[in-house]
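Hi Q.,

Before the meeting this afternoon, I wanted you to have the iron/sulfur cluster prediction in hand. No need to reply - just skim if you have a minute. The sequence and ligand are here:
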Amino acid sequence: MTQVKKSAVKKLKSTAVLKEIMAKHYFKLDKASREKSSKVAWCSSVGPAELLRSMGFLLYFPENHAAILGATKAAEEYIPAANAEGYSPDICSYLTSDIGAYLKGITHLSRAYDRITQLPDPDLLVYNTNQCRDVKDWFIWYSKKFNVPCIGVESFCGLDHVTRDHVKAVSLQMAKLVPKLEDISETKFNTEHFQKTIDLSRRCSILWRQVLESAANRPSPFTFFDGTVHMGPAVVERGTDAAIKYYEYLLTELKLRTTAGISAVENEKYRIYWEGMPIWGRLRKMAELFISLNACVAASTYCNSWIFSSLDPQEPFDSMARAYTELFIVRSDQAKERYIEKMVKQYKIDGIIFHESKTCPNNSNSRYGMHRRLAKALNIPTVVIYGDQNDLRLFSEEQSITKIEAFMEQIRENHK
Ligand code: SF4
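Predicted structure with the ligand bound:
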């Protein structure tokens, strides 16, 4: 088995700034919740964040908290509590670990940040089913616990092409949220504020795209594993100046790395695409494994999911509806395959890893043969590993490492 080099991950200097931004985000929410100084909306990760923010809500994203539970390898402690509440072990482990932690009276925010003792109390919860139905179920559960409204948008799924009719249907639902939001925020909807927030989010998205595209350089200054950490502001702070400033800062560091020829993976020889959810509790180990194999995981569907190219302040509702309906996760297999083919060419990818997550079928694309079709169309190896975003009991680590090593061997052969 490959000798994993434990110290080989090159940490970006920007990580210190990232930590500050994430801490500020959570301290601000905590203060608002304790002092009732701002309204707090819980929002699904690809929910209508810009609309909520433009109306003065501070946003809390339960999926981010769930990912923290995964990354701190704590999810399995909490999942049984949600199972006892009636949620199947087969449904989203973000949902079950997050609700389980709540039932046990624990938040990992208090472990990460002194002075935070609980989740910020919501004034309402807002979802978009564009990613899955689980977020809606998850949010309805909390809305009953906190006795606050839960509203949202019902999206399409399996779209090959996003048409004007799709966009209009979603846009109208978003506009219909406004009276309820006005009522709760006690703030009148203001088109200019909304346009400004859309513009800030658009600029964040452009910068985040540039950050990810820096990995198209050979060698790459950035990996998928870096991306899963540095995407934080694009998820929780999009629509603010803070996110824009952060990505300008990170981009400067990446440009310096590129100019100086500093690679994220020492002696990078091979380039891999990661399809599917991260395995949060094994990110570091996976990063070290690929470094040991001289392979850079240079691109992924997951990190790219927070690029919202269609946002346009001139058409705030329609462009937001389009951006959140064009997402990879809600598209047909054909559209997804076209997208991955483009990414493989752009990032000069030698092989694709499909992570089939047991509890997230929505983000597992190998179940109906996509890995086989893409291997044939692109003439590169693909491999499927079985795991989960949060529940490490579902990840067969030794078997996955063996599969990845065999897959890399195939890639090495192709390079001869
Ligand atoms: S997309 Fe997957 S991981 Fe995310 S909330 Fe839905 S089921 Fe859970």
